[in-house]
Write a structure and sequence with these properties.
By secondary structure, the chain is an alpha+beta fold. 65% of the residues lie in helices and 13% in strands. It is built from 4 helices and 5 strands; from the N terminus they run αααβββββα. A hairpin with a 2-residue loop joins strand 1 (176-185) and strand 2. It is rod-shaped, with a radius of gyration of 61 Å.
């Protein structure tokens, strides 16, 4: 082989090597671009994932806040319904009270005349009754008359005082009592012990226990008792004063009136 041929082969080999090298450089550039694009995609994907996570967290917070607001709304609705029920019940109570007030006005119109009639009847009863505790009982009636015309005393208090007076008079009918006082006999005053058996009978005995009288409600006079009753009336007076043991005693009593 000639030197020319050898040189040609060497040159061809160098050209092939250069060509191969050149081809490697050409292939290497697109791969780098792909790797670079892939890295960009990963970065963009990571950024997108961060945004998604951020929006998810915000959505969760908003959902929790919505749940809290919804619960609070239900709680407020229940409370408002409760308050509305209270208001309605209070309105019913106010309406009932107003109805009662209107009724009281009508009741007052009927009670006031009734109270005046009750006091007048009590006054007549005291005047017609046996004359025991007369001054105290008449003063009580006069006090009631004054109270009825006093604006400072409430209607309820006036009515209560009248009922109290009637209760006291009722109790007089079942008690036995003795008190010392003066008995007017034909213009002459005599110190006596007044002894009353409820409203059945009223007696008087001189302090020396030598004379006794019984009140005649029809004639409004005092009739002298027979001396035979002196011992029994003395016994009754001692028992009433709790100065003697309980025992039987006999005294005359007014005859019962015949029913008409």
């Amino acid at each position: 082989m000639s030197k020319v041929s050898n040189r040609t082969k060497i040159a061809t080999a160098l050209v092939g090597a250069l060509a191969l090298a050149g081809s490697n450089f050409v292939v290497a550039d697109p791969l780098a671009d792909v790797q670079k694009a892939d890295s960009g995609l990963h970065a963009a994907s990571a950024a997108s994932q961060q945004k998604v996570d951020k929006y998810f967290d915000q959505a969760q917070d908003m959902l929790f806040e919505y749940g809290s607001v919804a619960d609070e709304r239900e709680s407020l609705k229940s409370y408002n319904d409760y308050v509305a029920g209270l208001v309605a019940d209070q309105q019913k109570t106010l309406d009932s009270i107003q109805t009662d007030i209107n009724g009281v006005d009508k009741l007052r119109q009927g009670v006031v005349p009734l109270m005046f009639k009750m006091v007048d009847a009590l006054d007549q009863f005291v005047n017609l009754d046996l004359p025991f505790n007369t001054e105290v009982r008449k003063n009580r009636v006069e006090n009631l008359k004054n109270i009825l015309n006093t604006a400072e005393v409430t209607l309820a208090e006036k009515y209560r005082l009248i009922l109290d007076a009637y209760s006291i008079e009722r109790e007089y009918g079942s008690f036995v009592a003795v008190h010392t006082g003066k008995l007017d006999l034909d213009g002459k005053e005599v110190l006596v012990d007044f002894f009353n058996l409820g409203r059945v009978a009223l007696y008087a005995q001189s302090l020396d226990q030598k004379t006794a009288w019984m009140y005649d409600a029809d004639a409004k006079t005092w009739n002298k008792l027979e001396d035979s009753y002196l011992r029994d009336i003395t016994k009754g007076i001692r028992i009433a004063r709790k100065q003697g043991a309980l025992d039987l005693f006999g005294l005359p009593i007014p005859a019962a009136e015949t029913a008409q």
